[in-house]
Amino acid sequence: MGKGFGQPKAVPTRNVTQFMRAFGKCYANAKGDKRQVEQFLQKHLAKLDENLLEALPQVFPKLLAGGQFGDTQNVASLFIAFGSSLWKFPLGDRALNLELSIAASQVALKVYPRNAFPEQWAGIQNNIGNVYIDRICSDRAENLEQAIAAYELALQVYSHVAFPQEWATTQNNLGIAYRNRIRGNRAENLEQAIVAYELSLQVRTRSAFPEEWAMTQNNLGAAYSDRIRGDRAENLEQAIATYELALQIYTRDAFPEKWAGTQSNLGSVYWDRIRGDRAENLEQSIAAYELALQIYTRDAFPENWGRSQNNLGNIYRDRIRGNPVENLEKAVEAYELANHVSTREAFPEAWARHRGNLAEALIKRASLTENLIDLDTAITLLKRALEVAVPGSPDFVDSQYRLGNALSRRFEHNQDASDLQDALNAYTRALDVINQEHYDRAKIWQALPATQSVLGSRLVRKGQWQEGLQLLLNSVRLLSEGDDHLAHANALYQTGRAHETLSDWDNARLYYRDALRLYEHLNDPPGIAKSRHGLGSVLASQGYFKKGMAQLQQARDLYQQLDRQNRVKEVDNLYQAAQRAEQQLSEVPA
To answer: Is residue 382 situated within a structural domain?
Structure first.
């Protein structure tokens, strides 16, 4: 090659040719044993580099000329095998492995055009789709579009009649792509995923293909757990049912890793479950994650172990049974374990998410123990998480919302005006970037009305009562139409509190009473206690002393059980004030 500007760069292919010949020999001798192939790739890990990626297209004719692999189709089959082997190879540079897989498949496509080799062409398209789903390089949204396009090309050849198994496999894969799709309407994408999985199950029956049937049932469960259309409660019941079906095949002894994955999925859906007893659902969720962690050990499955620890932390954070402080201690411990593997450098998004969850647990613990150090730590963690969160993303919204909560809680203790202003700024930033796409994401779809609720209550207390009350009323309306009943109860309570601040006793009483009923329905002791607290205060202010003191006494008893001594003191002060007012009123001559 000549040197100089505009001249093509020479790509060394000799070593790459030798490597591919060695791989071909290993692959042939392995006769389908994936472990032997992985051992070969591990031994030659240093050769899976940029030079290999650049040289792959030029190596093909040299392998053909060598005569070792026979005709053109055999050499192309070697490239297909190489690409497939790298798709799930766990060692080395994962991003580069996937690029090598795509490059190898694209070389093979030149040998297998659709018109001459439709079956082989469709198989390569399916493989390309698989790699694009996992691809790290380039834009994630575009990668998923490429995966969908590849699967749809494959389905032009793989018909239900001519290639039933391949058709079912590709439908299952297409379902995965649509479930994860970023572009388009999220609700419609999930409907497309469900349709694809159900089509796949027409061929992947339990009797004919038990393992594949279980795989698709597991995938279908994931789609139902995310589903937006239809009744949310029923969708979650469908998800549980399909996961239970998958576990009939995915037993711990026969498929330990897949069993653990399905247990993890089951834990997630029990956490979200609407029907049944909330406390029992959370216990079921804990049990499922603890089963998953019997397989997902830190050494064998560090990423899955970290994710499960994070999820277990979420459940202990929300747990109803057991001692609240002890539950939060367990949540904090689980989040800290999760952060051992989800480092900022290796997994920035997961790292930020886990810190956000840890911050949430610390905020809750601070409300129980009045430990301001927990609030300080939570605020620091959330600010760090926001350094890596993509502006406008669900994680960004979540972290801003939590930061607002932490700062406003701290303001209640220190009365530092800057904390209140920073809290309002955080809530406003969350509110400004929320759009309809957030509504279909776990825990985020309610962010708009929940943020309106908290921001509205803060504005009322700050003196901007008209704007604040409007936000609160909007939040109550929106949340009454959704499935997050706890958020709805919180909004009702905050609206009652706002009316109390404005001395609008009648509306305050109505909203506190509605909040109390919903908290009682949800069996939420902290919510019941604070609603009785508010209701008692308002009734006493209206002159209904006996009714007010009865509510305050019940609130005091609950606060005592929850070990919230500061709240007990507040209630005692109100109770004594109501007693004095009642006594003074009775002493006035008729």
So the answer is: yes
Q: Domain ends where: 409, 434, 459?
A: 434
Q: Which long-range contacts (CB under 8 A, 24 or more apart) does 210-213 make?
A: 210/249, 211/249, 211/255, 212/168, 212/169, 212/172, 213/249
- Asked if the structure places residue 488 within a domain, the reply is yes
pLDDT in tens, the chain (590 residues): 333 333 334 555 678 888 998 999 999 999 989 899 999 999 999 999 999 999 888 888 877 765 555 578 888 999 999 999 999 898 899 999 999 999 999 999 999 999 999 999 999 999 999 999 999 998 999 999 999 999 999 999 999 999 999 999 999 999 999 999 989 998 999 999 999 999 999 999 999 999 999 999 999 999 999 999 999 999 999 999 999 999 999 999 999 999 999 999 999 999 999 999 999 999 999 999 999 999 999 999 998 999 999 999 999 998 999 999 899 999 999 999 988 887 787 778 888 888 899 999 999 898 888 889 999 999 999 999 999 988 877 788 889 989 988 988 888 788 787 887 788 788 888 877 776 554 444 444 455 676 677 778 878 877 888 888 888 898 888 888 877 788 889 889 989 998 998 899 999 999 999 999 999 999 999 999 999 999 999 999 999 999 999 999 999 999 988 888 878 888 999 999 888 888 887 664 54
Q: How many domains does the chain have?
A: 2
> Are residues 425 and 491 located together in one domain of the fold?
no
Q: Report the CATH number at residue 311.
A: 1.25.40.10
- What does the DSSP 8-state code read for residue 112? S
Structural domain contains residue 417: yes
Rg (C-alpha) for the chain, rounded Å, is 30
Same domain, 305 and 400: yes
522-552 burial by CB neighbour count: b if 16+ within 10 A, else e?
bebbbbbbbbbbbbbbbbbbeebbeebbebb
Model pTM score = 0.71
Instruction: Render 287-307 in DSSP notation, one character per residue.
Output: HHHHHHHHHS-TTT-HHHHHH
Residues 319 and 427 in one domain: yes
Q: Is 334 helix (H, G, I), strand (E, B) or coil?
A: helix
Residue with tokens 């392998």: 63
CB atoms closer than 10 angstroms to residue 22: 14
Q: Of 408, 434, 460, which closes a domain?
A: 434
Same domain, 302 and 416: yes
In a domain, 548, yes or no: yes
At 482, the amino acid letter reads G
The whole domain housing 402 covers: 296-434
C-alpha distance from residue 69 to each of 53, 60, 64, 80, 102 (Å): 21, 11, 7, 13, 21
